[in-house]
Amino acid sequence: MDVRAAVAFASQQPLSIETVQLEGPKSGEVLIEIKATGVCHTDAYTLSGADPEGLFPAILGHEGAGVVVEVGPNVRSLKPGDHVIPLYTPECRECEYCLNPKTNLCQAIRPTQGKGLMPDGTSRFSLNGKMLHHYMGTSTFANYTVLPEIAVAKIREDAPFEKVCYIGCGVTTGIGAVVFTAKVEAGSKVVVFGLGGIGLNVIQGARMVGADMIVGVDVNPGKRALAEKFGMTHFVNPKEVEGDLVSYLVGLTGGGADYTFECVGNTQLMRQALECAHKGWGTSVIIGVAGAGEEISTRPFQLVTGRNWRGSAFGGARGRTDVPKIVDWYMDGKINIDDLITHVMPLEQINEAFDLMHEGKSIRSVITF
Ligand code: NAD
Ligand code: DAO
Ligand code: ZN
Ligand code: ZN
């Protein structure tokens, strides 16, 4: 079938709106009509050429919501008409990783997903007979896409697509890091580095679980008001701190934070986040994605003395199980998504969404089809 898509032909070039061809779903796959998709930093990272795994030409996009229109043979958990969110981290419920409660990183389709292909090793997308790569197993910058059944979360039908698409990445990444990865307890002291779309979701996750003190750290004072609305109790601008930021944060939290979250992708901040975690028990979670080849460092004695360093991908969420719950949290008014979606536009304006992100003018832009 013909579908409308934003195609990334090469790095550092604007996306091009094209009519491309999409093959129907094969065994274990479903065809989804995408109704809305967010534009995330990871799409921009890949488009910039900095992503060592980036493949071109490709249809980017990994933060969508839509409706199942057709299912291939052997699909059991989905049917036409189901409302869904695509998952760049699938959940097969059978692999060694899915069977281990310590991780959400299902590996069932990892080798082909990383090559921009469906699990059978081929692509469903083409343009004038030439293959286009899938992206993150989702390719949501198209009004129709094909996904493996295990990479699709079924959600309730009254949830608005243009809001809950954000649960496909940013919301789940931030809130999940608090709830599923760190398992922050009520009464905790939390420090969040970076108050962008991810950091704000960490903040509202921390508020939801009952953290007492939620410190936000950002070099942009313009982030303060929205972060306070989301639950931040103290704001720290590193540019205004005299002396060492770590010592300042340790003092502010009365000895260090129970949990810290790095939501920027800056390796210096990752070190500071680890070192302002409380001696003896503090945990620091890396969420930000650093540049290719960058490394982190600290003195090993920081770990010897009881600080824990860990990371979180997709918030530690198991998509088919946890994403529908997060949609419920939104529909029940437990979390705020509306104030984070600062721009809504049609596919034809998708390059403006990238510009707004680069200029720091948006939290999240959403494309509606
Ligand atoms: P963003 O650009 O919206 O926000 C980053 C914030 O950090 C901004 O408010 C900026 O002012 C602030 N900042 C920049 N430098 C700083 C510094 N030195 N000190 C303090 N604050 C600083 O980005 P985002 O959308 O919130 O994404 C954050 C990171 O999370 C990115 O690296 C992104 O790739 C990553 N990410 C990770 C996952 C995952 O699963 N682990 C998923 C999605 C995104
Ligand atoms: O299983 O090896 C693997 C890959 C897991 C991918 C998780 C990606 C999360 C971080 C990238 C940002 C996503 C938008
Ligand atoms: Zn993302
Ligand atoms: Zn699995």
What does this entry look like structurally?
The chain has 11 helices and 17 strands. It has 2 domains: 2-168 and 337-368, Quinone Oxidoreductase, Chain A, domain 1, CATH 3.90.180; 173-313, NAD(P)-binding Rossmann-like Domain (Rossmann fold, 3-Layer(aba) Sandwich). Strands 3, 4, 5, 8, 9, 16 and 17 form a 7-stranded mixed sheet that branches. The protein has 369 residues and is of the alpha/beta class. The structure holds nicotinamide-adenine-dinucleotide (NAD), lauric acid (DAO) and zinc ion (2 copies). The site of one zinc ion (ZN) has 6 residues, from loops. Residues 10-367 form the Enoyl reductase (ER) domain. InterPro entries: ADH-like_C, ADH-like_N, ADH_3, ADH_Zn_CS, ER, GroES-like_sf, NAD(P)-bd_dom_sf. One of its GO terms (molecular function) is alcohol dehydrogenase (NAD+) activity. Belongs to the zinc-containing alcohol dehydrogenase family. Class-III subfamily.
Question: How many domains make up the coordinates?
Answer: 2
Report low-confidence residues grouped into runs of 5 or more: none
String of helices and strands: EEEHEEHEEEEHHEHEHEHEHEHEHEHE
Helical stretch tally: 11
- Termini separation comes to 17 Å
Radius of gyration: 20 Å
Protein name: S-(hydroxymethyl)glutathione dehydrogenase
Cofactor: Zn(2+)
GO molecular function: alcohol dehydrogenase (NAD+) activity; S-(hydroxymethyl)glutathione dehydrogenase [NAD(P)+] activity; zinc ion binding
Keywords: Metal-binding, NAD, Oxidoreductase, Zinc
